[in-house]
Amino acid sequence: MLRTASDPDADAGTGTTGGAGDRWDGLLTAVRHCCALVVTVLLAPRLWWRRRRRGTRTAISTATMILASSLVSLLLGVSTATASTPVGPHEATWSTTLDSTVTLDLGPLGTAAMESPAGILGVKVVLGEIPGDPALDTANAASVGQSLSSDATSYLSLVSHPDLTIRQGLYGLAGDALRRAGVVEAIFLCCVAAWRLAPTKPWRETVRAGVSHRWAATVAFSAAVATVASLLVPAMRTAPSPGSTLSVLEGTPLAQARFSGRIADVVTAYGPKARTFVETSKGFYAKADTNLRAAWKAAEQTEGLVDVTAVDGKVDTEDLQARVRASSAKTLVKATDPEPDAAPQPSESPRAAATPSISVTGARSVSERGRKTAVLTTDLHCNLDVIAFSGVLDQLSGADIHMDDGDLTMTGSDPERVCVDALTQAVPSSAKKVATIGNHDSDATASRLRSQGWTVTDGSVQTVAGITVLGHDDAERTTAAGTKPRSGETTEKIASRLATTSCGGTPVDVVLIHQPATFDMLTKEGCAPLLLAGHVHAERGMTTEISPRTGLPVTGIISGAGKGGTSLGAVTEDAFLHVLSFDATGALVAWRAVILHSDASVTVGAWRPVPGIASGQTTATMASTPSPSASATSVQAPTEASQSVGPEEATQPQEGAEAQGESDSSDG
């Protein structure tokens, strides 16, 4: 039967067939477009590469090669790094491993191991000997006993602050890894350069021919893979850790560590005591930190007019406000109520009274002329917690300079580099750092300080944050074997040389010296206006004397902590730190003491003026607080010493300042 154009069935069949064909055609077209797009994308880099200039292609390929080779070199360096960094009192060798384990090898005492937090990368630490005193002929029962006591202190410091030792070791490994990576990269680049600069083509063609030969390439590749596998597989094999976990360490970071040998017995027996000591010490200094912040905040709110003591993170605000009002009233009376029988001097005039010849110092001068702030520490003796406490004071005071007046360590041994590192990390990076070397510090201490960015006094005038500082190493050197001369110079000779230098062409703002016995000669010469010392483990306040040679005032501070408050754990006597405020010329305008008490309370002293000298006197001393040795609960209202000094008082002793003879500088 013939189909006509008007046949509806024929039209329907034709429409159905045509629609299906169109869909297939569209699908095939889309697939072709997708394939073309994929090919274009795949070929785009090649086309882009061909369009680049020859120089551009060379630069890109060279950079890619260097980046890839550097990455491989770094991986090799990290996986083979070693370092020598002390652990407690021990010398120790650190090395990286690929067994996912951190292992401490104590030799015959056993091992301690735990899972590495760095994945496949592990660390093995092998303890070595404890360095002895170089002068073996001086060893005796007393010196050896002192050395053993120092070793025990180092162990407890390690337990209480393991992060400092770990950071030291990791820094050492990182440095060695970079050195090794640099060597590997240098060798690789030398080989590439030799290849590029080969003078004749036959050698290069021979190598290319060998590489292009199938069997030669296969053998070379197989040998390389076998070599790498023989090195990596044993290194990456994680053997079962010997020993077992200890219940006494539950709740500590070492809860999952496994101990074996005698060390496991030692940890089981003494672990609870060490843990209690560490927790008690941490609790004490956590309270001290809180009290310092609370006392400092309150002191700032009162503009440093009165002493502020914080206990349990709180300040007695009612008592504080009463003392501030009383202090302000005293200042007002002093400024407006002259003595009834006081007759004006003929030379007095409004202009002369308004323009005193001697600058006013004290609390009021800090906001007016205080341009630089310095924090002074001394005789820290590696008490890592007090070191951290001093860093908090740096932050709160906005210190521009941190001055350490010596005896940062106990014996100056190489393992005590952790003391230097701890203070460096505590001081804000924005603050400049200057230190002098005390009798307990060594040349190694000085070298470590310099390597950490400290300016170390060396007998010359040095500028630190705009303040000119003069100082020198202590004349004596104290170790476990006793005290002996450091060099041929005595304290008197050093003092004489520093006095001569201070009167040279460069003006000196501060003499930073550990031994206060040097003050006499420096005061007689009278060229350095401010002398800072420690050593005696006692705070002596601030003393001003008139130089017999120049007739100028020379001011000195002797600072420090009581002997019971050094080295380890909570302080048992008041520990003093000082905050100094200098004007733009480097002159001292005010000072205050910050006292850490044995009950963890903290006193932030009022800003005090430089003691004035009355007519007919040559010496005046001002205490850092009304009662320097008082406990936190007995701090009284400050004296007039904390107030601004009026023009008429500039040459008279301040209330709270007393005349006295030479300060005692007994050894400590």
Q: How would you describe this structure to a colleague?
A:
With about 675 residues, this protein is of the alpha/beta class. It has a domain at about 285-335 and about 360-480 and about 490-660: Metallo-dependent phosphatases (Purple Acid Phosphatase, chain A, domain 2, 4-Layer Sandwich). About 45% of the residues lie in helices and about 15% in strands. The protein is built from 15 helices and 24 strands. The strands form four sheets. The protein has an eight-stranded mixed sheet with strand order 7-22-21-20-8-9-10-11. Strands 12-13-16-17-19-18-23-24 form an eight-stranded mixed sheet, covered by helices on one side. The radius of gyration is 37 Å and the shape is elongated. The relative contact order is 0.09. The model is unreliable at about 330-360 and about 630-665 (pLDDT under 50). This is Serine/threonine protein phosphatase. Keywords: Membrane, Transmembrane, Transmembrane helix.
Count of DSSP H/I helices: 15
CATH topology of the domain at 287-335 and 358-479 and 488-658: Purple Acid Phosphatase, chain A, domain 2
Q: What is the typical, i.e. mean, pLDDT? A: 80
What Rg, in angstroms, do the CA atoms define? 37 Å
Span between termini:
130 Å
Question: For the record, what CATH class of the domain at 287-335 and 358-479 and 488-658 applies?
Answer: Alpha Beta
Query: What's the main sheet like?
Result: 8 strands, mixed
Structural class: alpha/beta
CATH H level of the domain at 287-335 and 358-479 and 488-658: which superfamily?
Metallo-dependent phosphatases
Q: pLDDT under 50 segments (min length 5)?
A: 332-358, 628-667
Strand content: 15-25%
- The tally of strands reads 24
Task: Tell me the helix content.
Answer: 40-55%
Tell me, briefly, the overall form: elongated
CATH architecture of the domain at 287-335 and 358-479 and 488-658: 4-Layer Sandwich
